[in-house]
Amino acid sequence: MIYLGIETSCDETAAGVVRNGREVLSNVVSSQDGIHLPFGGVVPELASRQHAAVISQVVQSALSKAGVAIGDISAVAVTQSPGLVGALLVGISFGKALAYSHRIPLVGVNHLEGHIAGVYLEEGDPVFPAAVLVVSGGHTNLYHVSPESSPRLIGQTLDDAAGEAFDKGAKMLGLPFPGGPGIDRVAREGERERVHFPRPAMKGMGLNMSFSGLKTALRYYLDRTDFPFGMEAELPHIAAAYQEAIVDVLVGKSISAAEQIGAKSIWMTGGVAANSRLRQRMVQACGERDLILSIPRPGYCTDNGAMVAAAGFFSSPDSGILDLSLSPRTSPKAGRYKTTGISR
Ligand code: KG4
Ligand code: ZN
Fold first, then answer.
1. Ligand 1 site, residue 10, Cβ cutoff 6 A
2. What digits encode the pLDDT tens for the residues 186-235?
3. Cis ω on the peptide bond leading into residue 82 (within 30° of 0)?
4. What backbone torsions phi and psi does residue 297 show, to the nearest 5 degrees?
5. Is 304 exposed, middle or buried (0-12, 13-18, 19+ CB in 10 A)?
6. pLDDT per position as a tens digit, 78-101
7. Residue with CA closest to ligand 1 atom 11
8. Which residues contact 301 (CB under 8 A, 6 or more apart)?
């Protein structure tokens, strides 16, 4: 079974071709970072327009890189929710038109299930039960994933996503959008202990998280501190301390999740999983507890079409039907996805 996955939920126009939910034949991503950079965040209308401008090329390129024709595709999988409605509509409309004109089934995919399926693109045989941290610019969710049932949401941020905390923090520090990679880079030269930021919801709120207070703490710190030699000299220390607060919460909650569900492994995915300090700390924390850690390569962690193709295959391995009533959904809840299918 060869699935074509289409992803347009936020600011990446992406398409990927995957055989049997695991073997990536192609994975093409057109990033909009340059378009949103002057605004310091994703502008929904610009995102939709750019998706519309490049989607055809991106899908063509994914097919040709995979060495397949549209007639070889068993089903088209497209991100249906959650995401920016106008952005989702571009992918869904394109997927519908493509599927209809070639009489191919069309499968709607939950974006977060897509991120979870990204782990299967990397790991031939992931270990269950798993506590899965999906951490990106839009989401910070913890799932219990086992072969017997659909992924179960067991914790989430109650306000900003961790990626948003990185992006907004970076903006305050004068670093360009997207801010995560900038903070990661600058923080490498900094001393984490020079400044202290709160670890919101670290103790309490169960497995839920909160990052908006941290952002406010940085704002207050910058407003109330004198920098006699300019902020430049302090920037690495502030970035390192701010990053450490986010990382502490993500690692602490993931370990608590693993302990609560009796997990044998932790999987981490989403754009923030690229953070070098988070990876280092997660490796260390898992090593100390005999937990197996799976982190897909960066290209499968950030938004991509291959993960959507994989999730489409696992939710509808019989390739489903051509559902032309498909429309963007706003509920972020993972639903139909059966990991039982994945372990085949
Ligand atoms: O998964 P993704 O590509 O898109 C969605 O948001 O769905 O994640 C993008 C997020 C941005 O907030 C970006 O700042 C963050 O991932 N990010 C990082 C790093 N690389 C990307 N955050 C921290 N450190 C990084 N190295
Ligand atoms: Zn995402």
1. yes
2. 999 999 999 999 997 877 899 999 999 999 999 999 999 999 888 999 99
3. yes
4. -60, 155
5. buried
6. 999 999 999 999 999 999 999 999
7. 137
8. 115, 118, 269, 270, 271, 273, 274, 295
